[in-house]
Amino acid sequence: MNLPGTPPRRLIVAITGATGAIYGVRILDMLRKLGGVETHLLISSAGWLNIQHELQLAKDDLHARADVVHSVRDVGASIASGSFATDGMIVAPCSMRTLASVAHGLSDNLIARAADVTLKERRRLVLLVRETPFNLAHLRNMTAVTEMGGVIFPPLPAFYNQPASIEEMVDQTVARVLDLFALGPALSPAWQGLHSGSAD
Ligand SMILES: Cc1cc2nc3c(=O)[nH]c(=O)nc-3n(C[C@H](O)[C@H](O)[C@H](O)COP(=O)(O)O)c2cc1C
Asked: Which of 3, 27, 28, 175 is 20 to 30 A from 17 via CA?
């Protein structure tokens, strides 16, 4: 619960044009299920292309998952200013183009500007970068964002939890991402060790 006068918990979620639009959608779904977090959604044009191609999701269905939806062209939006308090920002998935823009502080659309603000205010920025293989520009840009305090979080699935479906695999990653924001009790179960309970 917030103290009187303190801003609500807020997260900015951006979906850009890398494959894996489902990560952004599941983040919104999980935040809605958790409750108590105001979500601000941004979708790039290439992000829309991928959402339609990969998920066949209607715009209204996606918009309904967020509290506020901003146009990427609206660089005058609330989230373009550091004075608008947020808990941070997640870009899921994050294209190499958006990564480059963030790494170089271009602020050339509201996604890059909100990420720039998140970094300058020393708030948490998590980029679910998606490309393979990487070239040197990608690697250098990831290093630059890390040096500025951002978290590079490629959505690489883990197999030790034996996911039974793509949804489970995605949700395991989403839980790890949201746990970085300490929104409440951990969503991702703690690893108990391979031989828990056995001394041998
Ligand atoms: C079907 C499809 C899949 C794509 N997958 C990726 C990807 O995995 N990673 C990436 O960096 N770019 C990918 N791209 C290219 C980006 O969408 C493109 O570079 C775009 O300019 C990114 O713009 P944005 O950062 O504003 O979303 C893909 C494009 C399409 C159409």
From this structure: 175
Ligand 1: residue whose CA is nearest its atom 28: 18
- What's the pLDDT score for residue 161? 86
pTM, 2 dp: 0.95
Token pair belonging to 104: 């170089």
In a domain, 120, yes or no: yes
The pocket around ligand 1, CB under 6 angstroms, is made up of 16-19, 44, 46-47, 49-50, 53, 95-98, 130-131
Residue 1 lies in a domain: no
| Ligand 1 atom nearest residue 99's Cα | 25
Which residues have a Cβ under 8 Å from the Cβ of 148 and sit 6 or more positions away? Answer: 119
Residue-range definition of the domain harbouring residue 53? 9-179
Chunked into runs of 10 residues, the chain (200 residues) has average pLDDT values of 74 98 98 97 98 96 98 98 98 98 98 98 98 98 98 96 94 97 90 75
The pLDDT score that the predictor gives to residue 1 is 53
CB 128 within 8 A of CB 51: no
Query: Residue 199: what pLDDT?
Result: 67
The C-alpha atoms of residue 189 and residue 172 are separated, in whole angstroms, by 9
Domain count, the chain: 1
What distance in angstroms lies between residue 19's CA and the mean position of ligand 1's atoms? Answer: 7
Any domain includes 192: no
Do 114 and 89 meet the contact criterion of CB atoms below 8 Å apart?
yes
Residue 6 has a pLDDT of 73
